[in-house]
Amino acid sequence: MKDNTKLRGLYAITDSTLLADGRLLPYAEAALKGGACLLQYRDKSSDDARRLREAEALRELCDRHGAQLIINDDAELAARLGAGLHLGQGDGSLSAARALLGRKAIIGATCHAQLELAEQAVAEGASYIAFGRFFDSNTKPGAPAATLELLGQARQRFNLPITAIGGVKLENAPNLIAHGASLIAVVHALFAAESASEVERRARAFSELFAGN
After folding, report:
1. How, if at all, do strands 9-13 and 84-87 pair?
2. DSSP string of 143-181?
3. Would you tell me how many other CB atoms lie within 10 Å of the CB of residue 62?
4. Which residues, at least 6 apart from 156, have a Cβ–Cβ distance to it below 8 Å?
5. What radius of gyration do the chain's Cα atoms show?
6. E strand or H helix at 206, and its extent?
7. What pTM does this model have?
8. Average pLDDT for residues 52-80, to the nearest whole number?
């Protein structure tokens, strides 16, 4: 598993609607080729067999490209694959997930726009904390808004990688990085593309924002 200090760069998050019809694997691989350091498999369906197949294939891609697979909200699947885990608020206990996955696993926590939630996540053994949404988001239009000021406060208070999520695009990402985001989590601005080569181009552009920072 990667150590926390290396958690820096583009954090690609899959979307089952955007990546339907056979796009999941080629588009995910394109994001990895473009430099994504984390890839989160996010699929809320109840088709466990398909989810296992897809997650296994994504893990192989991540291994090949030196990235880390993160499973959204399914600690058992993460444990089965030896992958990381991301937990939203209400997705179960982070400390229980840490006990299940071991101390080396990457486990992230959604903290919305609240430093108190981040404090709790850190105490329970989170590897990174995620704040959002920062901008209008297709994925979670009703999520509470986070601010650049909050990001700066979190950077001062916590010695963990900080993920910024929610409506992140190429033009607004630099400001997030400047205010302390170690990871920028991107869904639509990365995967709502006409081709895998376009996904790779976008991923590379996001990844290059971290060069020299």
Report:
1. unpaired
2. SPPP-HHHHHHHHHH--S-EEEESS--TTTHHHHHHTT-
3. 23
4. none
5. 16
6. helix 196-208
7. 0.95
8. 97
